[in-house]
Specification:
Number of domains of chain A: 2
Organism (chains A, B): Brevibacterium sandarakinum
Catalytic activity (chains A, B): thiamine phosphate + ATP = thiamine diphosphate + ADP
Largest interface: A-B, 81 and 80 residues
Shape of chain A: globular
Largest sheet of chain A: 7 strands, mixed
Pathway (chains A, B): Cofactor biosynthesis; thiamine diphosphate biosynthesis; thiamine diphosphate from thiamine phosphate: step 1/1
Protein name (chains A, B): Thiamine-monophosphate kinase
GO biological process, one term (chains A, B): thiamine biosynthetic process
Oligomer: homodimer
Structural class of chain A: alpha+beta
Number of strands of chain A: 13
CATH architecture of the largest domain in chain A: Alpha-Beta Complex
Order of helices and strands of chain A: HEEEHEHEEEHHHEHEHHHEEEE
Helix content of chain A: 25-40%
Chain lengths: ~350, ~350
Amino acid sequence: MTRLSELGESHVLERILSHNRSGSQVIIGPGDDAAVTAVEGNLVSTADMLVENEDFTRSWLDWRRLGIKAAAQNLSDVCVMGAKPHGLLVSLAVPNSTEIEDLEALFAGIVAEANRAGDELGCEIPIIGGDLSSSGLIVIAITALGTVGDPGVTSAGNGGVITRAGARPGDSIYLAGTIGRAAAGLDLLFARADGEYGKDPDDLGADADLRELINTQLAPQPDYAAVAHLGTASAMIDVSDGLSTDLGRVAAASGVHADIDRASLQELIDPLLPAARHLAQKTVTAEELALSWVLNGGEDHGFLASSAQFGTPPVGWRRIGEMRPGHGVSLDGAPVPTSGFSHFGK
Amino acid sequence: MTRLSELGESHVLERILSHNRSGSQVIIGPGDDAAVTAVEGNLVSTADMLVENEDFTRSWLDWRRLGIKAAAQNLSDVCVMGAKPHGLLVSLAVPNSTEIEDLEALFAGIVAEANRAGDELGCEIPIIGGDLSSSGLIVIAITALGTVGDPGVTSAGNGGVITRAGARPGDSIYLAGTIGRAAAGLDLLFARADGEYGKDPDDLGADADLRELINTQLAPQPDYAAVAHLGTASAMIDVSDGLSTDLGRVAAASGVHADIDRASLQELIDPLLPAARHLAQKTVTAEELALSWVLNGGEDHGFLASSAQFGTPPVGWRRIGEMRPGHGVSLDGAPVPTSGFSHFGK
């Protein structure tokens, strides 16, 4: 194991970029002042950070999974705009004492997730640039770029873009992927901090089902292909802060009310019941805890879409409710708070 | 003064984005999963981070200047590719206890620098997205996007792009802006930590010339307009790590040797002599210290370009040397080390 401080910046960059795959859109890749790439259509761009002690802790740190998570949360955001990812910029701050093998694992995770998304969506997603800095805390800031629609088309359906603002009363609400699993995994990780589980997520001493929930927290695997199967939608959002919050954002942006069909969530709740039984306290039943994960837990990076109702939902999607006139979110008609996660109190 | 923890994330975003100016290229701005913008030509992208205790310390922290610096270092990188900046993504991690007024000052600094660059280069540079997170350390990660050349032109002169790799023997070396001033300012700040100066950079108790050097460290002001005046060049680079290092990068990428004309640097050295006299130790003279700032100090964000010699240099540029066959960097023929700054030891 070799620490970064023994290698120097240029050797570190060489090692970590050895995992990268280039793309036919790349004119100038990493190594100059900036990258240059050929784009077709409008540009889609999004940036997200993962910060130590805020989004993960050293005690759960698995560098490869952290890379997967950092890439997934950014690629999801590009994907739900109806766009194809185009490339990633990866800025990284890590302590001097970090081992190069750990950093390589992080980049291998980023590249693996970018390749998975590229395979599902039929595009190439190279790392085209970034920055490397030393720091007391681990911080990963990724920018994901994408392209959508025809070049120069800036009106008429927003140039092929699907926003949060297009849902209409009467639309059905569809979900791809899962919700609640990462939140259950997070609670299991916190419980594990009390010594309940082993340190390595692959060697939890817990059963395989619980381990899979923790994996969803550490390395979410968005169902990018589902977005390709959907074709189009009136609105779309990545569920990063929880169903209630993110559906609330669509409702607010579109000026509609979103009613969730409680029965449609049962298939999502059932697989969480063993973990919920494991963690439920006297004040809350396992069923209530599992429902709260499904309603309020983000980070699986499921996708929500609204659309006129399909006879049969597209591959990967399930119908979970309906848009109506009004505002806010409800569950079988009963209002659901949409406050969600905030980084800063309140 | 109000702390972020009293406001909640959405109110914080509202306050800081109130400083933003939109642009005609923006189809979907901040607030959806990703931004969508209309681009003409090839895409230029670069990302840079500023990390507390690595790039600045609390004791010198001036939020507005930090915003200027963060924007300037990214905009410079776009500019030296021969490109026009298109937009910024700003990801920010700050402690919960940060005051909203400080964050507003940071964003006001970013916006002010983006507007200054836009005015000099004839383009609009809005903040189009980003992320906000709480953290134990202050981290600012900015991605700057730009456009260059005609869409789809991916060969023949790299589609209008100026890289580090095009310098030829016989080209003259030109510099725009300054070098060495930020490095002198940094040494003054470190000296100040011993109590020599007052805390506020505007109230240093030092004379105005020394204060200006510190200002260059805290809030560099790249001469973006000079790049517009240059027209084209065989190679270009932003001097972020020092003349010797960055000129060494051009020499290495282009397969040439770069010889600096010592006499041409005197105009850059002279203004640094008062600060150098202030700080020089027994082992180094003021002249030696000032020369080392000019050769090895980065962060003024001067621009280096190589080109066939001009009769009269374009506005903002001075000739400082010549490219020759060979490799490495020399000063009046004597080899200069190009090791430069590394974030990780060695």
